[in-house]
Task: inverse folding
């Protein structure tokens, strides 16, 4: 009986290519640092960095037993991300609260992920320069600025790094000659995937991506029609390919089960954003993300959700476009499998972040394209190679076009990164992109207040409330600004409005207590500060404000206890230390009498 000839495996990279590979890695690093090196001189921004980093008492534990225990048990910020929190603790251990070190870590993580992307794709496809182009786009595309320049998006960078490591381990697994030889690679793949999920659960669709790679470029699917499949012994029916990914699927299921517990109140109820509004926004966002990939202009840190104001025609047209593209690529799947694989990579990886489960008030976010965009770039790059296969001087034409594209993206990304230099620049740019952005007005007001420009801050808060009159945070911050201007009665009025909307906000309750203390309404002040501590027991301001109110009531021992608790949580607060010293002095004088 005649034997079926084995299909040739893709050639392993040859030694003469090593210099080219090293040169590509060097150029990729240069591109990353040209764009993002400037961030090392930047500071924190007032968009989650305060909550996660510089006003987060838990970070001050560093890499201690208490810090590690907190990182693995907390759902702070509506996320269970122990690897991300551990990375922040490590940064604090090295740099303290100097933001330059945290930015350096972000740039290093993005650099490593870029290099790994290039190497993994090269080993999978054997195509050096197309893989270099895909990695270069990943390195400098303006849509990725938010992921690198924003310190609170460390989770996306870590998940991206572990995503690449998982792909690399998977490639080792499928190329090993025997089951016994594959076991270490498979275990490494599981570990990297678990670490990625514990950085950011957006990786839950990774098993689906591996099935796509089985089809192309690995050619492991028995119905694959690719030029360079793996050895015939590695070509398997679909059910075998799915079965080997069951442990990965189980990890994804566990991550999905943990997410609702961690997200808690961050999940927006259907009463606020209807299911039809979510579906409509999701369809429109799929098309908008593609548009931003080709034309990355007017990129902002926050895009307000349109809720029910989105025109009906927009999601309808988007649905037709998505179905049309998918159908066309299905028809071409045998001739051009990379088109379908890249497209489904993009569509599938965006599912967890597309807004069907609404977290926060945004419609979309640039950071969500960090990994999904790779699929689009793969499809476009290999598609362009197919179109250009018969061109005269093909190498020169493709090289020139690729170089112009990378240079253009680098310039745009450099300019986009500059908007992250401080909070005022960030929110001013966001309002230039969309003036009807209440969060941008609110956060710009917060930065102006920090700079003691309270009159300008009040203008921003009032502009935010003109757009959204039901925003508790804007009322609360407006009260803070008025209180700083000694307009306590007006501040109390704003705090009352904020509490009617969100009675569980510890910050508002605490600041309301401070305003009431200033007006001598001490019993009420104590009541509101205690409410703040019931909602958030480790709120430093609430302990301090409660201590102030208790001291005014001459309950000195109770005041001292709360001042000391506040200093335990945040030792660097000079005003708390000053208040404590004053009360200790008064108590000592009383005892001396």
Result:
């Amino acid at each position: 009986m005649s034997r079926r000839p084995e299909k040739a495996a893709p050639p392993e990279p040859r030694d003469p290519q090593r210099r080219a590979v090293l040169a590509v890695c060097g150029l990729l690093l240069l591109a990353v640092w040209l764009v993002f090196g400037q961030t090392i001189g930047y500071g924190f921004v007032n968009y989650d960095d305060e909550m996660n980093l510089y006003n987060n008492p838990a970070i001050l534990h560093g890499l201690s037993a208490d810090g590690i225990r907190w990182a693995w048990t907390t759902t702070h910020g509506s996320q269970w991300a122990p690897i991300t929190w551990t990375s922040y603790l490590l940064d604090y251990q090295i740099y303290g609260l100097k933001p330059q070190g945290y930015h350096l870590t972000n740039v290093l993580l993005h650099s490593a992920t870029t290099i790994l992307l290039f190497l993994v794709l090269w080993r999978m496809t054997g195509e050096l320069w197309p893989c270099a182009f895909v990695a270069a786009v990943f390195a400098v595309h303006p849509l990725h600025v938010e992921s690198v320049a924003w310190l609170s998006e460390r989770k996306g960078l870590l998940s991206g790094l572990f995503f690449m490591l998982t792909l690399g381990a998977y490639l080792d697994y499928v190329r090993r000659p025997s089951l016994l030889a594959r076991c270490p690679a498979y275990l490494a793949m599981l570990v990297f995937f678990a670490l990625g999920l514990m950085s950011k659960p957006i990786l839950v669709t990774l098993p689906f991506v591996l099935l796509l790679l089985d089809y192309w470029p690995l050619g492991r699917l028995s119905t694959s029609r690719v030029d360079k499949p793996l050895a015939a012994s590695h070509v398997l029916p679909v059910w075998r390919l799915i079965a080997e990914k069951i442990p990965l699927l189980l990890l994804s299921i566990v991550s999905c089960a943990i997410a609702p517990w961690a997200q808690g109140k961050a999940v927006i109820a259907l009463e606020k954003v209807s299911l039809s509004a979510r579906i409509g926004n999701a369809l429109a966002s799929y098309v908008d993300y593609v548009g931003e990939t080709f034309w990355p202009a007017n990129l902002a840190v926050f895009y307000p959700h349109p809720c029910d104001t989105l025109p009906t025609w927009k999601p309808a047209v988007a649905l037709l476009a998505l179905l049309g593209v998918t159908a066309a690529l299905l028809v071409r799947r045998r001739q051009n499998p990379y088109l379908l694989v890249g497209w489904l990579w993009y569509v599938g990886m965006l599912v967890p972040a597309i807004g069907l489960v609404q977290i926060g008030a945004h419609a979309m976010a640039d950071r969500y394209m960090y990994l999904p965009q790779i699929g689009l770039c793969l499809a476009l790059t290999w598609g362009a190679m197919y179109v250009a296969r018969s061109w005269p001087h093909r190498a020169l034409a493709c090289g020139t076009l690729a170089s112009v594209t990378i240079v253009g993206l680098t310039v745009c990304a450099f300019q986009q990164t500059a908007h992250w230099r401080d909070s005022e620049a960030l929110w001013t740019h966001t309002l230039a992109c969309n003036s009807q952005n209440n969060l941008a007005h609110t956060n710009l007001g917060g930065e102006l207040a920090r700079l003691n420009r309270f009159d300008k801050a009040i203008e921003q808060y009032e502009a935010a409330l003109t757009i959204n009159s039901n925003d508790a945070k804007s009322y609360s911050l407006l009260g803070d600004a008025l209180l700083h201007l000694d307009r306590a009665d007006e501040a109390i009025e704003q705090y009352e409005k904020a509490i009617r909307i969100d009675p569980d906000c510890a910050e508002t309750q605490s600041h309301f207590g401070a305003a009431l203390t200033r007006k001598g309404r001490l019993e009420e002040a104590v009541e509101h500060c205690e409410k703040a501590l019931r909602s958030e027991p480790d709120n430093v301001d609430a302990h301090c404000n409660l201590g102030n109110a208790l001291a005014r009531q001459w309950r000195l021992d109770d005041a001292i206890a709360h001042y000391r608790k506040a200093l335990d949580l945040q030792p660097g607060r000079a005003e708390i230390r000053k208040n404590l010293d004053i009360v200790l002095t008064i108590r000592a004088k009383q005892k001396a009498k």
Residues 99-125 form the longest helix (27 residues).
